[in-house]
Amino acid sequence: MPPKKAAAQRESPIPVIPDNTSFSPESFERELKSLADKAKDETWGRAARREVTAYGRVIILLALAAASANASVAALSPVYGAIPAGLWHSVLVASALFTGWSSNLHLRRLMPPSRPLAGFLPLLAAYVPAVQFFLSSGAFSVSTWVGPRWGPVVVEALTLFPLLAATSACVATELESATGVDEVVRLPRWIGDALPGIGSWSVFRLAESMTAVAETAPSSAPVAVQWLFTRVASQLAITAAYCTVAPFSRLWLYAVPALLHALALNSHLAGSPWALSATNRALRSDGWVVLDRRESITGYVSVVENLSQGFRMLRCDHSLLGGEWTRFPANPVAEPIYGVFVMLEAVRLIDVPGKVANDADASCLVVGLGIGTAPAAFVAHGIDTTVVEIDPAVHDFASRYFHLPANHTAVIEDAVSYTDRLVAEQTAEGEFDYIIHDVFTGGAEPISLFTLEFLQNLHALLKPSGVIAINYAGDFGLTPIKAVMLTIRTVFPACRVFREHQREAGDKGPDFANVVIFCTKQGERDDDITFRAPRKADLLNSETRKHFLVPKFEVVDADFRSTEEVRVVRRNDTEQLAESHAESALGHWAVMRRVVPVKVWELW
């Protein structure tokens, strides 16, 4: 035993210090400190890179979730209308984000280690447009079975909700991986637990507002860029972006059928020639065809034609901007299919002291173009006509597919900013003998164009002997039309109101109708407004004008049946008008479904 112990002692390693190295306790301490500093720097750097990467992925994921939410509600607008599509959208989005955030631990336990939840995000995003298409058209049409109030909820619950919930869960996981918050920031536990959620929600809301502003590409952008901003194409672009932040997975292969469907079979893919062909193949069996379509700043705009009956219409989302007959020649103007637009031309028939004697000396301002029925008539009468239209696609389609004459002044601009500038620059009282106010209504009207301030601008631009005609569509039993009438009468005391069609006797349902309000600048009583009998030249050789030019069905104050006390609509006080928009838009949706077949709305 002792010899073995001695041998072991002899074999044990003995540190050898080189002769040129000066060893001391001080140098040893310095060396240890140097190594510790290096280890500390390396750990801090890695932690910082990890946190920056994690927070960067969080921001990207939240931005993609926000873009997905905006793209989804935009894709449903042509089928349901902008207001019904967004009625419960915010609630569903918030519910999806909360569900994903609160259940991320359970989802992670369910996922196999080789397939993290983030790998499923591109797959979920890819199927959103495909499933929305199947749920919005054909035999699976949710809009037909459920209606406009709950249809968007059902569609988004099956498409957008899973995507947002999964994204939110991945965000929670990423924030957990970015460790060190509790160690560095000494806060009460309840604040520390709440900060990541509050911060994520704030980033999401900011990204949601930013992506909503950037939903439409500038008209000067290349065609490829404009195509990426269309509704279905933007959803495909979001899918591709999800791939950049999700770990590569073979699951992505299962997204190929959805992508092929979107590119080859989805008729909602605007800007795609084969998608338009697919749409028209489905519509031709019912006698309809889409001549042209475009995504624009006010929504999905298209020109649809009924081949069997011989008329065409201009559509924006789930509403119609006008229509005219194609089987009758334009001589000298086209024959419109809706009488309300002809009623607007009756401003020329109102007798006002000091009225301009000759049409050639008159001027007219038209706010809102549509297909240009009224502007075309004013130009035909020789009146100098200026049209203010915010949407360049509407003006382009009206010029190319309808009979809008070229000899008018086109102002492609927001009417509020245009009239503000015009009023500030004018040196005399009034510039126009006639003003036509005919903007996109039906529960989705731009509220800014019905405020007291905007109507005061129109009052200032109207000559003392001028006449204004305002078109408004609404339900006589709801508050908006009553509030709008109060605002108009505050600016123009003398007004008479006419509806397009008389309400059927005994009808107890919603009373949704188009009305035209005629007002004069110098009148004080409604009785001051009288119409002269139309002459042959006033009719422009039009059968529709023979029947609708002179208004017939007058509306009295008792017809506005809302019992709510209304107030004047102002730029800083539009809540009352906006609150009832939902019910008005739902009523408008039902009217549109009776005017045009369901298939035309669903296939875009």
Describe this structure in words.
It holds the Pfam family Spermine_synth. This is Spermine/spermidine synthase. Residues 1-24 are annotated as: Disordered. The chain crosses the membrane at residues 58-80, 86-105, 117-135. Keywords: Membrane, Polyamine biosynthesis, Transmembrane, Transmembrane helix. With 604 residues, the chain is of the alpha/beta class. It has two domains: 42-269, Growth Hormone, Chain: A (Up-down Bundle); 332-602, Vaccinia Virus protein VP39 (Rossmann fold), CATH 3.40.50.150. It has 26 helices and twelve strands. The chain has helices at 2-11, 25-80, 82-85, 89-102, 104-110, 121-136, 142-146, 151-158, 160-177, 181-184, 189-213, 223-228, 231-245, 256-264, 273-284, 339-343, 373-380, 392-401, 415-425, 452-461, 479-491, 536-539, 543-548, 575-579, 581-595, 598-602, and strands at 288-296, 299-306, 311-316, 319-325, 363-367, 384-389, 409-412, 432-437, 462-475, 495-499, 512-520, 553-555. The strands form two sheets. The protein has an eight-stranded mixed β-sheet with strand order 7-6-5-8-9-11-10-12, with helices on both faces. Helix 6 packs antiparallel against helix 9 (160-177) and helix 6 (121-136) crosses helix 14 (256-264). 44% of the residues are buried. Mean pLDDT is 86; it is low at 1-12 and 179-187.
